[in-house]
Protein 1
Amino acid sequence: MKLGTLAACLSLALGASAFAQTTTLKIGYATTKESHYGVGSTVFCDEVEKGTQGRYKCQQFPNSALGGEREQIEAVQLGTQDLVNTSTGPVGNFVPEVKIVDIPFLFRDYDHARKVMDGPIGQDILAKFPSKGIIALGWTENGFRHMTNSKRDIVKPADAAGLKMRTMENKVHMDGYRTFGILPTPMAFPELFGALQQGTVDGQENPIPVILSAKFAQVQNHLSLTGHVYSPALLLLSPRVWNKLSDADKKVFLDAARKAGAAQRKKVNEDEDNGIAQLEKDGMKVVRKVDGAAFREALKPAYVGYAKEFGADNIKKITDVQ
Ligand code: EAX
């Protein structure tokens, strides 16, 4: 091959590789970069960048920088945001089939919850998203939710009665909490710290990883380990991105989401192990032994409604998973 032709081929090849497009994906979540959502999102982003040889990179927006979870899910559906790592809290407003996993006291413990989400029941729910204009790449995790407030210890439902508690924009949660005598006030997460600080609400409920990373100990002095709801989380992708991916890149994104879920769950475990002592150090009074039986008893009227809405057999399929 003549030298001139070789040089021309080389410059073409170099030029082509230099033009290999890099697409930057906007990913948002509610809490800090150091939190469980930040850990999961960073693993996802690193795995995607590695698996696509840098053709896809992320720009992370922690601390609700792109708005509340409901707003971000809407933006992913519209295609103005590429990804959100979100609790299922507001998701039921977009994909109703998700709501069943928000039922209070549905899951026995983390092992049970993770088995359901990773098994046929959880995977079937993920398959309901594309028809609603959202790609669910996989389950991540928020954690078991506990109650905090600025007024008093909560051991049994009667202690929670009359408290104005912020809830997620989630009817399943609100119906359940009303049976405890709580006055539920749905509110987007970015408004919560200020509402607690001003006393607009008396309390809220969230997993230890959120209570820690959001520094709620600064505005709440009572924590009760009610564990009244398991809060799953999801990595949601815009179809605008998904539909441009090759089959090989789709597999990279799904594998990255699986690894992100594992990393996020590991961080939740760590926060559960160390977080309560830290919150006590930060000044919170912790009730470790609440009357779980009394909360479950109080919840019974709401379960009548849940059975009607989701089917008692479908609820039993979840509680039967070992
Ligand atoms: O997903 O809104 C909430 O209480 C959520 O748990 C928080 O945004 C993390």
Protein 2
Amino acid sequence: MSDQLIIFDTTLRDGEQSPGASMTKEEKVRIAKALEKMRVDVIEAGFPIASPGDFDAVHAVASVIKDSTVCGLSRALDKDIERAGEAIKPANSGRIHTFIATSPIHMKMKLRMDPDQVLEQAVKAVKKARQYTDNVEFSPEDAGRSEVDFLCRVLEAVIDAGAGTLNIPDTVGYNVPEQFGGLIRNLREKIPNSDKAVFSVHCHNDLGLAVANSLSAVMNGARQVECTINGLGERAGNASLEEIVMAVKTRKDIFPCNVDHLDTTQIVSTSRLVSGITGFAVQPNKAIVGANAFAHESGIHQDGVLKSRETYEIMRAQDVGWSTNRMVLGKHSGRNAFKTRLKELGVEFASEAELNDAFGRFKDLADKKHEIYDDDLQALVTDANMEAENERIKLVALKVCSETGETPNADVAIMVDDQEHSASSEGGGPVDASFKAIESVVNSGSELLLYSVNNITSGTDSQGEVTVRLKKNGRIVNGQGSDTDIVIASAKAYINALNKVLSDAERAHPQTGDV
Ligand code: KIV
Ligand code: ZN
């Protein structure tokens, strides 16, 4: 029997550090439930000291997740560790992940500490974390650019202090596979008590090598990989969970460990859930979860696959959950079927009123679109479509006129703080005209950074899913909207983003918070 590879998902923590990807507590809980269903081993739910919102989210995830370990991040500081310890308290199995930088540049320029001080603080932090849980992980931040002898000293000392997992981050994505694998091997060989801890890796994708570096580390003895759904994360992102898992599963012949405990059929729906919530669309040619990942265009390939799937496919689409996107409901489906299917998808309604509201939107959609797929249902219940009661701006009506040779025009009616306003505007196209009309009422002064449209399912009656990214006073937010009419979907997405821009409740980005 080969070892089991521990899958540590950090979508809710490092993934959330992507500008604009911040998630509400409810969204984090939904993603955590999907990860638990996939049987991910560890879920890093957030950075509790970063903000009260982040603390609440980690606490909420720790309260509902039963089968996965729930982890909270902390710097190697008493106040961080106390907060993380408090946040994971309700967990069946809770972990504190504490870190301090060990590279010369980080120690000198960022921490302004000498190596002995860093070593002392690392040991102190691990001992402090052990007062809250037996399950403590330590990371020497920027390990990929740290001196190996110093890393060995720190890691030996933190194992003695009680760290059970040593996570080696390539924080800036600087490493390359052979060298990074060699580093892991070297550390395991040189550190006298290395057999007392699990070696983990955490790779960033600045050179597009996060997955390759992680897998090279696995070949050299790492038995935990930190990764995110869709590779979401700081800058170019983190190693993608779906690519790591499917590489190890598909190439059982070469990897010295397995991921047999995971339910890989949950991958596609979880990927959809994360992209829907964060507004970070998945590129069509993305491995495993991209819309084209299992599509064959060329005649030769199609012919080969029809004769024998293995000619051009190394994995089965259904093993990662592609075929589970069944047509589940239609126009005649009842409220109970709707509620039951959403429960199976991990979505529960906070109140009857919320359920009735969503069911009303489902009926409207079913009038326009005969076949309702799981992805349509997921889109119906994204926060963007849930019209939370505390939203200040709501779309009442939109009429656009787009005609060859004429300047497009939009008439919009919106509620702002319970008062109805209407406005008209011209624009370069119907979407541009609608946004201008809305902004002329709201006067948000925000800058549009991104506008993207994806179809949720195939067919011309598919819902369009629109993401709008806005920036105001250095804060970046994403808004989403979906509808069978993409101009309406765009207006919904824009209003969703504006509500976030105007909302005080939205959590501060961990990177810009007061930590
Ligand atoms: O990239 C990094 O170094 C991190 C640490 C906190 C593990 O995210
Ligand atoms: Zn990271």
